[in-house]
Amino acid sequence: MGKLSLKDIKKSIIDKLKNFDVKIYADEVKEGFNTPCFFVNVEKFENSLENSNFTKRYLDIYIRYIHENISDIHKLEIIEALEELFLSTIKVKDRIFTIHNKSFMKNKNDYVELNFGIEYYEFLEDEEEMNSEKMNNFELDL
Hints:
- With about 140 residues, this protein is α+β, with helices and mostly antiparallel strands.
- Helices cover about 25% and strands about 40% of the residues.
- It has a 6-stranded mixed sheet.
């Protein structure tokens, strides 16, 4: 079980969204994007120390589907498709995370947003142990 980065988690989400065959943008893009498209954002990165070996992490994930002049029927179809795609778990590298607190929002004009959370535990490596592994040879001049 290797250490995961936020980039790994976002990449896994983006890989699942590629099933839609529409452009996926970074959240930093504010204008000049073509629709239909997705924006993926990872927010609210919280963690708490569970014990001396593990920390518990929590992330909020936002997926926004934007389409100009989207009909209400199309919004419902997108909601159902996203619901199916992110049904209960998401796989990131060698780990599987349970999806929590899933909610959808329909905007009157042009978008649908899915929000969900994931929680996971991460092993904390002991600094002394990490340094001793990195230090293969040590010479002392007296």
